[in-house]
Amino acid sequence: MKSILLVDDEPMTLRIMRQALEKDGFEIRTAFDGRDALEKIIVRPPDVLITDIDMPRMTGKELCLMIQASMPDRRFPIFLTTSLTALEHRNWSGKISDLTFVEKPVSLRKLRAALLKIAPPTDSAAVGPSQ
Amino acid sequence: MIVASLVAITLTVATLLWHQKESQEKQIRTQGVSLTRMLSGLPYEQLVPSQGRQDLLNTIFQSQHDPNFVYAAIVDPENNPIAVASAPGSTVPLMDFPDKPVGWLSDRMVSASNGDNIIEFYSPLHAGKNTVAYLRLGYRQPVVGVSLEQVPFLATLGLIIFLLTPLFYLLVRKEVRPLREANEKITTIIESEEFQKIDLQVPVELTGFLDRFTAFVDMAKDRIDVLENDQTKLVTSKNLITYSKSRIENVLEALPESVLILDQSGNISFANRNLTTLLGVSLDDVINRNPADWCVNQELIEFISRYSKQSSASRLSETTRLNVGSVKQKNLVIKAYPIFSTLDSSDINGSLIVIRDITKESSSQRQQGEFVGHVAHELKTPLNTLMLYTEALIDDDEDDPKDRIEAANIMHDEVERLAGLIDNLLSITRIEMGQISIERQRLRLHDFLEDAFEVASRTELASKLTFELDLSSTLTSIMADKDLLRIAINNLLTNAMKYSRPGGVISLSSEETEQSVQIVVRDEGIGISEEEQELIFERFYRSEDSEARKSAGHGLGLALARDIVQLHYGTLTVNSKPNEGSEFVIQIWKETGMLKQAV
């Protein structure tokens, strides 16, 4: 079963995303800010990281830069949800591989479609719904 | 005049006597030469006395009747007298002849035994071809002196001169009087130091001279008038130029921009005081110096230097933007303009450099841009939640009523949050635009502050903080808009909590004087640097401090709080030290105090 780490300071966002993605067969872990997420990644890296950008203590941007610096051979893709659409707010991300910006408000349908494409939860789970 | 007369008489007499002596001497010489020539021509035998012959020499001597003829003598070559005829008392002086007399007739000066000067004429006497003797004729040399016969003539002459001298003096005096008067007048004019016409009655001979002299003076006077007039014009013109210059300089001083004027050589000929403040240099260091001598910013030096070296034909105004200062950066807009000559518009006299500090403007623009971004973010956050839940509801196949109700509630809360945010944004904008009117009512300040404090201390932010309330139970009531004042107090308390560190103390206290009430919100948080204390009340300003940046905010809380306090004719001030904490003080005038303030 593929695991997803959801990072957001809005509990309601975490809750609805967890519900939706668990139904798709993912193992969901959550963190409420960047620092919390980093601790959880160090313990066990997820298969996908979905994080908000504007959070207290450690922002999504800082989290990405920390991961890039401390885990050069990272394999998992990162989805970054943001409302800051201007290009200047994304300049920093040039050197970070496998990073996708997801514009707020986030469409669960589109996110789930993208996730299923790049990281099917498990073979069985992927087949599961059709059974 | 008597002395002059006597001198004239003396000179005249002396001249006459001298002339008389000269003519006498001339007569003696004529007489002596002719007599010597005559006698030396006679045979020697006739001249020397012998028996039976008259003494010719004596006879001739006696016949002369000349008082100056003192002797006649014949002497042998050894100078022994052979025949002598002389005036009574006179002797023939002993005097050798030269060995070889140069001629047959000559004269010489000899001294008589009584001291008289004698003019002696002598000549050799011959018998055959031999010189046998010498003839010597002595005449007394005439002296200057007055003889008795001359006294009446000389006295008459002296009298005439004596009488004529005053007459001559008076005549001369009469003739020079106009000149003397003219002299006196000119002296008076010189002493009075102002030009006047010289008006004189003069003899005909002097009229022409005086006319020309007066014309000359008139010409000089005209020339002086012209010069004085020119000088007055020059002084007036100089005053005007000075006045214009100082007026222009005053205008340049009053400009909000920094102004530099460079001459053709690129040196500063004027700089206003704003420049010294902006670049931190003193005027003395700048004037008459090249920017390279005092300016520390290389880019600024290069811009000014390049511009002032451009040829006049291609010179247009130029603009550049620079960031200067290492610690506190300033954004500057620098504009350079050519200064054309007033005489020839193709000729350039120098350059005008205008420097505008746009740090605040660009900071404000940047903050406004950030604010818009932040507002978008704040709006998108509830929208995001709404989007997630609506999609979940639509896609939910299992149709769990519990989940549906929860989703609907969340969506309801988010819509309320969105509406509240929009309301706040609108009210802030209205206050900023001056479109809000305050509704004053009597407010029991003690209860009001206690409620606000209670609400704040129960929020999520309040965890891990200690709260202290220190309000006087007798705190007065004030007239205020309750809703607006609550926003202000709430913003200050929220800030105090946001920028506190865990374990910090938040306190709300009050102080009351006869005229005013002070409400003090204090924290022990990260504090605010002195530079930022000026800026935090500006709309959209968000601290540059990284620790402060970690707390969410839209840079409006303090601006709004100050706006609200000012609507109540109060003041909001801050005292803070980095890492020690901040203290925000609202001072609101009581009605009595407000009246006094108004008076």
CATH hierarchy class name of the largest domain in chain B: Alpha Beta
Average pLDDT of chain B works out at 84
Total domain units of chain B: 4
Low-confidence spans of chain B: pLDDT under 50, at least 5 residues? Answer: none
Task: Reconstruct the topology from this structure.
The complex is a heterodimer of chains A (131) and B (599).
Chain A (H helix, E strand, L loop, with lengths): L2 E5 L3 H13 L3 E5 L2 H10 L4 E5 L7 H11 L7 E5 L16 E5 L4 H11 L4 H5 L4
Parallel strand pairs in A: 1-2, 1-3, 3-4, 4-5
Helix pairs in contact in A: 2-3
Chain B lengths: L1 H39 L3 H4 L8 H9 L4 E7 L5 E6 L19 E6 L5 E11 L2 E11 L10 H42 L11 H51 L3 E6 L4 E4 L1 H7 L3 H4 L4 H4 L3 H12 L8 E7 L5 E11 L7 E10 L1 H37 L5 H32 L8 E4 H13 L8 E5 L6 E4 L1 H17 L6 E8 L3 E7 L7 H4 L12 H4 L7 H11 L3 E7 L3 E9 L1 H8 L1
Parallel strand pairs in B: 12-14
Antiparallel strand pairs in B: 1-2, 1-5, 3-4, 4-5, 6-7, 6-10, 8-9, 9-10, 11-13, 14-15, 15-17, 16-17
Helix pairs in contact in B: 1-4, 10-11, 12-13, 13-16
How do you describe this structure in short?
The complex is a heterodimer of chains A (131) and B (599). With 131 residues, chain A is of the alpha/beta class.
